[in-house]
């Protein structure tokens, strides 16, 4: 099986959050980038599938030119190669442009499945995956908690989260699946994986390579603009308890008792 | 990226277990398996045998990150490296092919058995004997204070092969595969710290070892042990720096949150000064360690001086920083609800094993003044 995983480098949520540049857009350079959390779950699902059915996982990203650094982390988890679409004209792209670009890149890659995280921690729009499916004419199987391909029949079954449990969907491959965290915790890259990632190939593509230009995609033709931003009200100091459950319970009880709440 | 990967693993999978490991004094086989499955135990071994073949600095970075979360767990990697060093330095290709693959995969653990009840700092005074008998040696004696001695599958044992020879030519080094006839674990110590790491007394009662298990030539043992320490002491320094860093982070977080007299205690100068000194001392110990690793890896002629210095400074720093961390937390630092009391108990061993601080000073002084003893 050949599975393409859509992957986005995002500002590390753990490093204190996003910073805005003077024009209210995200300042991607100010905070270290990590693989989008939901994409890691998608990648983990893809890796498990190729472990079970054979094949390989390819990463696909539309990102600034320094993306390979972040892509290496995903390669260390076990993806075989990466494709990076990068172009200065793409700075400031909206979700529509992103979807058009990714779809154009996907047309050059043969695959059985495209996996994407349901949304990203920086944009939180959740539309790129479905938009790519629409542009490519691929079946969209969304909010997957379980993925079962049947390579011999050329179909795939997915359980989609619903308010009452799950729906069972089936579609012919190739198909695009948006992935939830219910698919399973992403693996830590092994140190061998990390060292091996240095030698894995990341192919770079510009707009010209894909037959696109800045008149149809990119920052110049963005369909969304930021009107205003407000920061949430500052909360009081929080203490985060990370210990194991028994220990954590003890600390929570002590905390509440200290404040005479219990 | 390697260091970050180990740090994430330590924070997410090892830190939550640290208090329990200390409380139960049980060797954390689950963490050993975790380190093995993430190739961390493979770091010191050549790639040809399934390891990662990294340099001393990288091994120390990994030990440091793990020890930040749990000193006992950091020691698992440090001891795996220590026990294997004689084979790295003087093993034959056959010996390496025989043992390195299972050590690199973490399937087997190796321990380092030099110390005896009557021979600690005075290592050359050991009495365990290895008598040649045909194609074997017969080992008799007892070793004391052997880290992970009761969970290891291979024991690197130093024994006297020529009692009449000079001090530095009496000893030889052997790899003993256990269990073995005549080998037993007499006791496991109850310790102040690193409680999850079993420290064992090992008895060799006529244990037969094939001559092919001798590492290096007869009489090379003492020299091999000393050369081993040049490369293993940085590992203990790394453990100490990790412990100090862990304690500093807990103390800093506490000082940000705890309020007394209407303000957070970190804003009082006495606390701020303590934290600043702790941070500076830890950073200094860390930089000395990294520099020492680079020098030793490059084959510096004064490797012993670098090795002794980094261990001396890091051990004393860990003790001081953890003690101050308990102080910053006040009463809360004294109870096991917070990890600093454990870190302080863990730190003490870094001033004692792999050469006491006093031995480290002797080594440095000797290098400064020129050999005269």
Tell me about this structure.
The complex is a heterodimer of chains A (262) and B (373). Chain A is α/β, with parallel strands linked by helices and 262 residues long. Chain A has one domain (2-233): 3-Layer(aba) Sandwich (Rossmann fold). Chain A contains six helices and eleven strands. Chain A has a nine-stranded mixed beta sheet with strand order 9-8-7-10-6-1-4-5-11, with helices on both faces. In chain A, a hairpin with a 2-residue loop joins strand 8 and strand 9 (165-172). In chain A, helix 2 (68-77) packs across helix 5 and helix 3 (95-106) crosses helix 4 (128-136). The mean pLDDT of chain A is 91. Chain B is an alpha+beta fold and 373 residues long. Chain B folds into three domains: 2-108, Acyl-CoA dehydrogenase/oxidase, N-terminal domain (Butyryl-Coa Dehydrogenase, subunit A, domain 1, Orthogonal Bundle); 111-217, Butyryl-CoA Dehydrogenase, subunit A, domain 2 (Beta Barrel); 222-369, Butyryl-CoA Dehydrogenase, subunit A, domain 3. Chain B is built from eleven helices and ten strands. In chain B, the strands form three sheets. In chain B, strands 1-4-5-8 form a four-stranded mixed beta sheet. Chain B has a four-stranded antiparallel beta sheet with strand order 2-3-7-6, with no helix packed on it. The radius of gyration of chain B is 21 Å and the shape is globular. In chain B, 52% of the residues are buried. The chains are: A alpha/beta (262), B alpha+beta (373). At the A-B interface, helix 2, helix 5 and helix 6 of A face helix 1 of B.
Tell me briefly what this model is.
The complex is a heterodimer of chains A (262) and B (373). Chain A is α/β, with parallel strands linked by helices and 262 residues long. In chain A, 26% of the residues lie in helices and 24% in strands.
